[in-house]
Amino acid sequence: MYRFLLTPRWWGINVFVLLAIPFCVFMGSWQLSRFEGRVHDHRTATEQATADGHTAARPLTRLLPVDQSTSGQRVTASGRYGEQLLVPGRELDGKRGFYVLTLLRTDSGKALPVVRGWLPGTADAAKAPAPPTGEVTVTGSLQASETPGDNGVSAEGGLPAGQTAAISSASLVNLVPYRLYDAWVTLERGDSGMKAVPASAPAGTGLDLKAFQNLGYTGEWFVFAGFVVFMWFRLLRREIEFQRDAALGLVPEEPERAAVVGG
Asked: Per residue in 228-245, pLDDT tens?
């Protein structure tokens, strides 16, 4: 009864099933590992953020370049404040406002973008407090350059002079006459009465939509594997019933074959 399994048609079906099931399981496991990796990174970033609040600040040069292990860590740098810019369209505590970004010119010859604080309302240079004069030492959280269009960072162009949409060396290089670090710092305490801007988690460490997409894809691939098995058994059952009916003479003749026999 099961000799039909040796026919070319069923050989093709069986080979497809034997290849499809491991592939679906592999893809599902891979998506699950990506989700678990994001959960691990999120947990690590949270623990690091908690620990960084109690660790001593380290010199800027020891923490560069910025990566997932150094983003958010306490850093200290010294220099003199120079050009000041505004970063409009930034929210804090559910309110819309702007960052006050000042370039700290260090002894290395490079400038470090420093977010001195946040103010509510429309970006207005008249509202932004002037930076301290003379030599200053700042302490804050190290952050990686922002990418326009990601994590709520505006990709808007055509801003008024003295404003930038993103805090990144690529965005600032044409706005200030300094060589820049590919990083920035947000002060632990807002300067001149401004609110301090909390540090952001490193890119790719949050439980965002992409993380839960990985979890959803995991379920889909395992469902596909189950569907392949279900369809194989269904086809097998139908084939067995067909063979049984044919043996009992219950299978109707095909129209063309009946016509040939009748003629």
From this structure: 999 999 988 888 887 777
Q: Report the residue count for the chain.
A: 263
Is 119 exposed, middle or buried (CB count within 10 Å of its CB: 0-12, 13-18, 19+)? buried
Torsion on CA atoms 161, 166, 170, 173, rounded to nearest 10: 30
The one-letter amino acid code at 31 reads Q
Q: What are the tens digits of pLDDT across the range 41-68? A: 667 666 665 555 567 889 999 999 988 7
What is the distance between the alpha carbons of residues 101 and 257, in angstroms, rounded to a whole number?
A: 85
* C-alpha to C-alpha distance for 244 and 4, rounded to whole angstroms: 12
H-type helices in the chain, by residue range? Answer: 8-52, 169-172, 209-247, 255-262
Paired tokens of 172: 């600032």
